[in-house]
Backbone:
């Protein structure tokens, strides 16, 4: 048997070690994945406006109805409620005929009621109390308001009668 020289053994050892080390790096290569979190927030927003509710000409022998609208635009999914204050003549309401009052001149009044239903008593709105459980659609929505001046207010003289009601829109 031939003797293997130390040089050959060392050379083979170094070559083997080099192969092992180079293969270790090959095995260390690969792919790793992670996640990038991305987020945004959309603030709820709403706006409100109103059209006039005009009753027309009142005759004390019959009820007089009128229709108006509160126009609301809220971002999609935003819950909201409405509140109407007592109007500019709230101190002079004759509650036998309604919860609001129209005024002409210095001290002439016609009382009236407002409702969310054509059947006035069913959807009667109370001043300064929230009403409606609505949800925004992202588009303008008209909330119809029905009004009635009840018959029998014969002491009201001729003239033009007005009231101004503040509309408050509460949303989450």
Residues:
């Amino acid at each position: 048997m031939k003797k293997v020289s130390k040089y050959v053994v060392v050379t083979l050892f170094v070559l083997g070690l080099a192969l092992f080390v180079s293969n270790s790096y090959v095995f260390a290569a690969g792919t790793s994945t992670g996640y990038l979190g991305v987020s945004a927030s959309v603030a709820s927003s709403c706006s409100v406006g109103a059209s006039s509710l005009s009753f027309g000409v009142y005759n004390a022998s019959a009820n007089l109805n009128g229709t108006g609208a509160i126009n609301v635009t809220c971002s999609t999914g935003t819950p909201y409620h409405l509140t109407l204050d007592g109007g500019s003549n709230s101190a002079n309401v004759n509650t036998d005929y309604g919860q609001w009052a129209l005024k002409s001149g210095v001290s002439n009044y016609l009382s009236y009621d407002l409702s969310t239903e054509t059947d006035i008593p069913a959807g009667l709105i109370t001043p300064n109390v929230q009403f409606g459980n609505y949800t925004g659609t992202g588009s303008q929505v008209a909330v119809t308001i029905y009004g009635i001046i009840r018959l029998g207010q014969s002491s009201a003289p001729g003239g033009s009668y007005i009231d101004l009601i503040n509309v408050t829109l509460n949303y989450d």
